[in-house]
Amino acid sequence: MPNANNDSHTPPSTTELSQAQRRAVSELLRVSPVADDLARRFKEAGFTLALVGGSVRDALLGRLGNDLDFTTDARPQDVLKIVRPWADAVWEVGIAFGTVGCRKSDFDIEVTTYRSEAYDRTSRKPEVSYGDSIEEDLVRRDFTVNAMAVVLPEKEFIDPHNGLEDLAARVLRTPGTPEESFSDDPLRMMRAARFAAQLDFEVAPEVVAAMTGMADRLEIVSAERVRDELNKLILSSHPRKGLTLLTETGLAALVLPELPALRLERDEHHRHKDVYDHTLIVLEQAMALEAPRDQPGGGPDLVLRLAALLHDIGKPKTRRFEKDGRVSFHHHEMVGAKMTKARMTKLKYSNDLVKDVSKLVELHLRFHGYGTGEWTDSAVRRYVRDAGPLLDRLHKLTRSDCTTRNKRKANALSRAYDGLEERIARLQEQEELDSIRPDLDGNEIMEILGVGPGPQIGKAYKHMLEMRLEHGPMEREAAVAALKEWWAEQG
After folding, report:
1. What are the distances in angstroms from CA 98 to CA 75, 82, 128, 234, 321?
2. Within 13 Å, how many C-alpha atoms sit on residue 420's CB side?
3. Using one digit for the tens of pLDDT, what is the confidence trace for 381-407?
4. Looking at the structure, do residues 141 and 37 belong to the same domain, yes or no?
């Protein structure tokens, strides 16, 4: 792949660059049957086609997947005419922004017309205008490592902004000035943090400075687009890196203000752990407990990671300095659950996700009443009942919440939780705890009491459920007797 970049300054490592190019050749050979076939069709129609952006970056990193991004001088309607007879499926969701999507064999493909886009000072949507050259298209890309292209089928490598060198140096820069780039699309400031977290790259000092100075520009971007970038960051391999950058630049104060609020001022007379640093450690420890990607339900878990990130956000509001020098955070889990619900709702998360994460935040301290195993079987059943389908995540969150450097204390907590999990497993085997129901269902209760549907049957059902939680499974005779005894007490 000849390099079209004429810049003469010395690259950071010739060996690294050549290795990257060899990886890219290998990756491109893998996808070339599909890519070259499509490129020939564009050429026959009088247009050019190039692999671009993240696809080229990932090829150079040796991690190109089956999602391929292309750019072309063809307008969207021309793209549709070319891909419709060729692709297995075509979609036009992004056609207003110049993008046509399609599927061919195992590949998901997006073809975008050369373009430039910018925001005005108040718009939440970019204004799209089409360009006439690939160079014009690349200069509007977010970062130099995403501003490289490979023209097909010739395999000509185009890198006008030294993206290959920045890739080798593992640094994020913008093709033009960061101020121009972030003014065009303020969401790119979030992307800088996201790519730092995903790729484990450093962000160039001038980019960090622009992010800090222009953080307020993010306010014009829709909550949905901000949320999607935040999710990608949180689900990355190095979320601490991205979250730290958001916090230090002031972007977190707009996106997730509860996070920087955890950096509580220290008081020389009242000592407590750094809640902000503790939170990031809990997040990393929770990640370490996630099941591997190749296991069913494995890989990054957004619910667990959000719960780890938000589990202590109620602490700043509940901090109290006690007379004996201790610091207390009474009921911070309840306050935190309400704050979690409010923040996630504002970021337009789904109701189910809001409910699950809030529930985990609310329950994350429950285990600390377990002590050395003093809970009754009834208390264990209630723990399982309250966690419901979130029990496995609650196990992981609770274990992750131990960040003490006192090994003796950490080992004691770990042993206690081992004991709780063993008791849960034992009770589950005996009683099917996952689906705790009263020993009598609603129809049976109505038949025994001789009463039709209504509030009293609901109360009776709730009473029988409490009996089940308190005493475990009952024989039918005993359950009927208990129900009749309760009914007599109701008069």
Report:
1. 7, 15, 8, 29, 58
2. 30
3. 888 888 989 999 999 999 999 888 888
4. yes
